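Data card: per-record layout.
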Amino acid sequence: MKRKLLLLFIALASCACVVSAQGRRGLRINEVMVQNDSNFVDDYGHHTAWIELFNSTFAPLEISSVFITNDTVNTTLYPVPLGDVNTEIPARQHVVFWADGKPSRGTFHLNFTLTPGQENRIAIYDADGKTLIDEVVIPADLQPNTTYARIVDGEGEGPEAWEIRDGSEDKYITPSSNNIIRDTNSKVDMFKEMDENGFGMTIMAMAIVFSALLILCLCFYAISKIGAKVSKANKMRVHGVVAKETPKEDHPKHDSGEEIAAIAMALHEHLNAHDQEDTVLTINKVKRAYSPWSSKIYGLRELPRR
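The structure for this 306-residue chain is written out next.
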């Protein structure tokens, strides 16, 4: 028994490790600034290089124990510390690490820096230090206060999925935010163009409401039929009738609502009883105890005789 429990525990642990590893594969390097002179500041008010990571999955992603590095040889250069609640990235959200070479300042301050004017390779490795999760090579010609960012958050592979952003109107820099900021909804705009007066929306809303009512009616009808069938089966069981052995025409019929109402009214008129629960006849015996002490003709004080 103990051996089976041990094997089950090992299997569950292995499954958990596999699920965790599969989830971390959704971690993406999303945007990088190598030389920060007048852009985003860290929690100490300093301008330093930064790396934005993105959780491309639709579930929270715990990134503690992964490794971030800019060294092609040392794949475990910076292990993301355990115990920090902020290392759990919500679904489709971002987190920024500061490449300032000062890890003593906190979890999100890396122990390495990025070098302007040359190619910088940034990579993320899984907890084993061998499995590559994501990597990117920052071009050497990246200018100060510009970023190398994915065109679409977390999507695409290779240089064609990246672009240089200088902070202009269509190339804005977005640390801790989506690389594409959508201020409109194309589907809503298209629906507005096709249905200017709102007739289509009205018809759709009414169709949804009436469909829901129709489904509700069908559910009530089905429930009533099931209830009648169960009641009939109970009545047959009380009368000792076996459905398979008795012809269908000899089966006791289910009492109609009119019959039940007539029986309840007769009981009420005869015994002054009433129902307390639905579909259950409740007969209460009324006991009227009489005591001379409760009668008004008797009193505790005897009146004087004249």
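Known properties of this structure: Residues 15-21 have pLDDT under 50 and may be disordered. The two ends are 100 Å apart (CA to CA).

See the next section for split statistics.
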